[in-house]
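ok so heres the complex, two chains, lmk if somethin looks off
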Amino acid sequence: MPAEVGATPSTSPGKTSRRRSRPPSTSTGLERRRSLTGWTFLIPASLVILLMSFWPMIQAAILSLQTGRGRDLSFADPLWLNYQRMLDDEILKQTLTTTFIYLIIQVPIMLGMALILANLLNDPNLRFKGLWRTAIFLPSAVGLVSYALVFRTMFATDGLVNDIGMALGFLDSPVNWLGQTWSARMVIILGLLWRWTGYNMIFYLAGLQTIERSTLEAAKIDGAGPAKTFWYVTIPQLKPMILLTAIMSTNGTLQLFDESYNLTNGGPGNTSMTISHYLYNVSFRNSPNFGYAAAISYVILILVAILAAAQIKIGDTRD
Amino acid sequence: MTRRLRRLPGYLFLGFAALASVFPLYYMAVSATNTSQDVLASRLIPGSNLMANFESLVTQQPLWSSVWHSTVIAVSTTVLAVVITSIAGYGFEVYHTRAKDRLMGFLLLAVMIPFAATMIPLFRLFADLGMVNSPLAVILPAISTPFLILLFRQASRSFPREIIEAARLDGLKELAIFARIYLPTMRPTFAAAAVITFMTAWNNFLWPKVILISNEYQTLPILLSNIRAGYVTDYGMLMLAVLIASLPAMVIFLILQRSFAEGITGAIK
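and the predicted structre for the whole thing:
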């Protein structure tokens, strides 16, 4: 299959926002009418984003200051009651910790593997390039619920992984993978690695297309081996892409829901549950508490913002 | 010879990654043809239970209605999203003014809003509108993303201004320039946007699960999740259901891999 990923002609990197000089706008009547036409073109899409993202976000902020059951809500006294309540919520602390465990273990391994794979695939002399790329990229096409259930089946106590482990002599007796805290977390991490490594690799492959091959040749002539070239020449040039994938992965991990819900169902005893899964339970299980749930959702929002800002800062200063 | 040997670890790593990527999908496909006992006995060759699994799936689960709902939702989302975000991306670039650039910058902030933070107010909004269990409530929040607008804006940047000017001199209306000239030339961008939107909508789970309360209106991912939640799991049937749910996205992927890659990375170039 001729799938030259990311090989489309695109503007070179480095140049920011305005890549094309535009004719100076004269404010004739014609120009103004065209500008008006432009507004009618972009208003529907903009309105949907304002109404379906920004407006609910503001609503959630107000909601997080309210208390009550179901639809019967009033402002809390004190206003920050819901936020105060979080400090004593053991399940919240548990799910937040678990989410960070996933983040800290899975994201670096995944991005590291994606970088190595992309670098291997970028070798002009590599054989069967299309085959490797298609195979490794393929999990990105699989739905999250689907793969979660395949992994659940493979790691069932009487399932495939135990059978193979015992046949090869790694295991003496079947392990209840999904019934123990750390093995359940490990299965989720393995699932995430399987699903997202190829996805991130595609970003790096796209990034590698924009690297001047001459810089790699120059490193080679200067006597740098493949490892040194990779570390000192390739990685620095890929930095914007690494930053982007790190932010996207962090964002995604903080919102993990499908795997927690379908692979382990949060178990055992909520120890593999993510914060978004807990948020879902508080919002829509048993007696819904929208005010408290909105406060939890703001914790996620603030964490996403802080971590993104921190990564941008680190990415900027490491020159 | 030594050069070949030096490449060996690379090939081994690639081979391992490729095998590990494909194996769970092979396991899923093979298990769909086996009985539940055979799946648990780790039978890794195709069996003869495919039709029986299919029989149990259609009798025990609302398979056809789920396929129908998933299709309607994914196709409508894709069509609406591509129409409104393509024209918006074009509008932001071709008729750009300082105010429009500022609006675009503001809309981009929405990328950082986690869905979790909008889920509850969205649920309340659609409940107030009497749209719980309505496919439209699933579709609407998904038809416009800053990412898609950006994808089309970047594409518009490479579209020659001279063509637009020439078309204007020929007396073409602005909308006609977009529909008759821009759209046909930018087909790859439209394909990329359509593929990525369809896959996301087809596989979406959390929001449909929240807003489609009644099982009558469930989509395929919700059906899968409900089979999992049953007391006894028929693994053969479950893997067949997973296979059916995964097939459309995987076929699209294998045919339009390039569009898919372009769709996820396109807006950032």
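quick notes: Chain A has one domain: 91-317. thats all i got rn
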